[in-house]
């Protein structure tokens, strides 16, 4: 991270930036939506068993400074939609949204955006502050981070080095992932004497935190379902419940107008035309996916592309690949949408 400035002067970085400038000449303004989940300091990030799920906070700080230096305006989704409607030629704007929302959204992410004086969007799964959605990934990771071994269904995993912690996490995550993940986690808590409620509170965002954030003009809040299911796998009625109920819950609890929604997972197989229509019926004004790419002129409001930033993004060059539209183009070329 210390060499970021030198790296940005390198030939590779110059090539990426000149593509970005060429895109500017051809298309005028550009709009790029980013999304991520959690953050950690560089030191903490190094040790985390599931570190790909976290953005390095130093990188995010550098990215926000870089965007300001290079003429990108950070805006809310409401502002981005208004700018699209105005067809603001030549302007470049970017939105950041945080999906799910953990305690670090309140403690670390929003304070960083405040420091830069720019807005941020939170897509909340309401089962997190309500305590009804098991944060099994966070609980599993916490236990692995703080223990030298772990026992699951009688099987023992050694977790006494950072490498072993990472491989154990990945193996167990693959075993649990799916609709029964919460049940696996519940059994694991009993087997290892974990206080499930205390662990949830340690990692979850709370309604008290969200109330404080909702009063901040730099924070825009939208919905990310109640229970974080893969919407395409649900019946129409169940999908409508997830989209509608989470909206109503946010509006009732925070006294806000929750106008925007982000699909969990969000790739082409996770949400499609049927689900965009459900989002419209549930009363949303705009809906985001995680299909890579830029928001272009004439973008329909029910499937905004967003570029996911994760732990492997530790250089501004990586972000520039998204800002130039190159990653979206590559994803379409190879059919990974
Ligand atoms: Zn999510």
Automatic annotation (TrEMBL):
Pfam families: Polysacc_deac_1. Coiled coil: none annotated. Gene3D superfamilies: Glycoside hydrolase/deacetylase. Keywords: Signal. GO terms for biological process: carbohydrate metabolic process. Residues 92-337 form the NodB homology domain. It comes from the Bacteria. GO terms for molecular function: hydrolase activity, acting on carbon-nitrogen (but not peptide) bonds. Belongs to the polysaccharide deacetylase family. Is involved in generating a small heat-stable compound (Nod), an acylated oligomer of N-acetylglucosamine, that stimulates mitosis in various plant protoplasts. This is Chitooligosaccharide deacetylase. It comes from Neorhizobium alkalisoli.
């Amino acid at each position: 991270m210390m060499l970021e400035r030198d790296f940005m002067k390198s030939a590779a970085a110059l090539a990426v930036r000149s593509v970005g400038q060429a895109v500017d000449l051809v298309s005028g303004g550009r709009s790029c939506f980013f999304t991520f989940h959690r953050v950690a300091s560089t030191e903490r990030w190094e040790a985390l068993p599931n570190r790909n799920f976290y953005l390095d906070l130093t990188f995010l700080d550098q990215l926000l400074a870089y965007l300001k230096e290079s003429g990108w305006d950070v805006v809310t989704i409401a502002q981005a939609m208004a700018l699209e409607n105005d067809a603001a030629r030549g302007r470049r704007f970017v939105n950041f949204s945080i999906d799910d929302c953990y305690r670090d959204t309140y403690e670390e992410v929003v304070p960083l955006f405040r420091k830069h004086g720019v807005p941020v969007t939170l897509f909340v799964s309401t089962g997190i502050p309500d305590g009804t959605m098991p944060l099994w990934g966070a609980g599993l990771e916490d236990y692995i981070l703080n223990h030298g071994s772990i026992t699951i269904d009688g099987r023992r995993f050694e977790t006494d080095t950072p490498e072993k912690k990472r491989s154990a996490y990945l193996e167990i995550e693959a075993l649990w992932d799916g609709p029964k993940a919460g049940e696996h986690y519940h059994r694991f808590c009993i087997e290892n004497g974990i206080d499930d409620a205390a662990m949830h509170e340690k990692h979850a965002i709370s309604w008290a935190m969200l109330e404080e954030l909702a009063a901040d003009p730099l924070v825009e809040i939208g919905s990310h379902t109640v229970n974080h299911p893969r919407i395409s796998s649900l019946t129409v009625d169940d999908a409508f419940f997830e989209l509608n109920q989470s909206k109503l819950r946010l509006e009732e609890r925070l006294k806000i107008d929750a106008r925007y929604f982000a699909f969990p997972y969000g790739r082409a197989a996770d949400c499609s035309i049927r689900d965009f229509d459900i989002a419209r019926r549930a009363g949303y004004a705009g809906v985001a996916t995680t299909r890579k790419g830029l928001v272009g002129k004439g973008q329909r409001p029910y499937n905004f592309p967003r570029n996911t930033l994760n732990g492997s993004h530790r250089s501004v060059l990586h972000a520039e690949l998204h800002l130039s539209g190159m990653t979206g183009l590559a994803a379409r070329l190879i059919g990974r949408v």
